[in-house]
């Protein structure tokens, strides 16, 4: 935990101070459950999942980033939280002095949000940052964006929830919209094959795609496949908005978290000859089996969770990684790759129990992907917004 800093207190008794102890860290992790309990559409995340994301002992981002947590208090009652992050890998990738804020959760009051944002901004300024971007918790590969719409949609793994009033308050405290991240719900109905037509009706292994093959996940070779996936993912998204290369130790941690729920059908790898050219990874939605257990299940709740996990009682999933190698980007084959990956996932629905999957986050400026997805789901079911602001020097 960090050394003590002078807390900032308002005339109304609001005070913002850094997280200093393991006890405070637990409060920080659990705070959204306190703030949003009873709100329409809110379902608490598992403390275990959030601990993997936020605990310095568990989250791999702490290997290359400086992170500070702050909480807002009124008396003995916590009323908001925020993180401030200087990510060394992001600074290398962008060559710009941009720090992140994230984990922004608060009662929807302007005084609280302003105090939290100001505190994060001042800390980032003291670290030499010139701009602030977010919310991102804690890095590019965690949770991104402030939920603008979709609060009453079914909850999804890795997708932050915020009350509908919060985004208007965020705009009033000086943060400006940077990008919207769009999520689309793809219902796996019987007519999906007919609606998703690959241009030219091309099929891997036949005709013009004779040297194109599709691979599944192998649990025996999951570590090696994870490295292929990481390389493809970094290659496919290099240079795009807010992107930071996924590190090998981050992929190792991700595989460790997901291995108990992954099946061969969850991974699509499209090869051209012997060279991987595109990939997609689907992750089952933990809320399907844990949403009714609360963030901290009882012993009986954990037993139920274990039984449901063994039975793979999921009915939804999320596509979390999808990318196309630069070796085919800009070619006709490269343009086909996202369609081929989605077609392969659709074909596997007969062996997976899912009723729908969510595709996201798709940048509002990614016209090619939006044109593809909107043939299947015309409108996004969730929108998360990224913000930025300049950090004036002292």
TrEMBL record:
Transmembrane segments: none annotated. It comes from the Bacteria. The keyword DNA-binding applies. InterPro entries: Acyl_CoA_acyltransferase (IPR016181), BcerS-like (IPR039968). The keyword DNA-binding applies. Keywords: DNA-binding. One of its GO terms (molecular function) is DNA binding. This is DNA-binding protein. It comes from Swaminathania salitolerans.
